[in-house]
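Handout for the seminar on molecular recognition.
Each group receives one record of this type.
Step one: identify the two inputs.
Step two: read the structure output and locate the region that could contact KE4.
Step three: write two sentences on what you found, then compare them with the reference statements printed after the record.
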Amino acid sequence: MEFSRSSQAFAEAQHWIPGGVDSPARAFGAVGCDPLFIERAAGAYLYDLDGNALIDYIGSWGPMILGHAHPEVTAALEKAIQQGTSYGTPTLLETRLAQKVVAAIPSIEMVRFVNSGTEATMSAIRLARGFTGRNKIVKFEGNYHGHADSLLVAAGSAAATFGVPNSPGVTPGTSQDTLVLPYNNAEKLLQTMEDVGKEVAGIIFEPIVGNMGCVVATEEFCAALREVRELYGILLICDEVMTGFRVDYRGAQHLLKIQPDITTLGKIIGGGLPVGAYGGLREIMRQILPSGPVFQAGTLSGNPLAMTAGLCTLEILEKTNPYPYLEQLSAELAAGIAQAAKKHNIPLCVNRVGSMMTFFFQEGPVYDWETASRSDTRAYAHFFREMLHRGIYFPCSQFEALFVSAAHREEHIRETIHAADTIFAEMKTK
Ligand code: KE4
């Protein structure tokens, strides 16, 4: 496959936009080639500037569970745009989408819409601090919650030492209020909260991690989260920006049977337009301005086009219930690629929940950042480039999840497994 027009576009973009991209995740930095510039998308396909059709397993990093340019979503947006694009006023659309989110996720009694997952998690943390009057928060290694300062923090030097900035521009003053612990380590969490639990406003976690690659919270870890919540009055902030409406219509919290105080959402609830949300128990959410003192605002929050795309997407998910189909197709993809790797003696560990999965290039198991980071990222980069040349668009990092959409069909799965098989056969000989 030829990608020269994307490379030319990338060279031009780098003159005007830092790194040539508006988000580093799409820069292909970890896979050793230029990013593709996409002209349009439909169903399971992306179409790049060079006219290549690529089977898309990113789906805009999660939102496109129905596939691209779903006719009903497109039609709803074409109708909505005739009414204008933004009013800066309340609209019924926001109430309707709020009612849908509340109906789907029992732990959410009220919800506030914002414009990104970052805004959702940033606001959720401020709310937890405002509600409890405490300053500290806890996050976990390998979990990503967007780029708010207090979340761009690496683990401190010692267990009880609070975090250190992991980006220039984040101050020690900010990061000292964030404690970073190993994910899926119940003992460490319980032990550390014994010392500092009473200072902690909230614990934010991905219930099924997408951002170190796919890793699921263990029952023991979920039990420890529930325990420290009860023992120390810490709020649980379940970050379902990626998993919300992805792994189940009722979220990962339904699968893991965990009852958070605050849930953050994004991606699918915007149907591909910029929407984030945070929601939770009424007594907590009422603390948000103007019903309460915790400040949060946004010019385009609840934008009518974004609400329309989100509403239509959730309506289609409710009406068609694609989850059994997604499970069947995703299981076939995971098993087929795992079988091909085994046949060619390529070390591969597959973690999957529903239509979200990661192929780790290692024997496994992968259950936290330390084990995920043992993956052979060079082998993954080679696999990614070879898949791309076969017209298959996988995540451009070993430490991301891939997604199957309701627009994928058996033939796409078969083509992808066959491509992986041919690549593994070549890799074995190297
Ligand atoms: P955004 O600010 O990118 O909308 O959402 C931040 C966020 C929060 N929480 C979770 C669990 C997330 O996965 C994300 C964003 N996910 C990444 C992909 N791993 C977005 C891709 C990108 O940054 O371009």
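Reference statements: The first helix runs from residue 4 to 16. The chain is about 40% helix and 15% strand.
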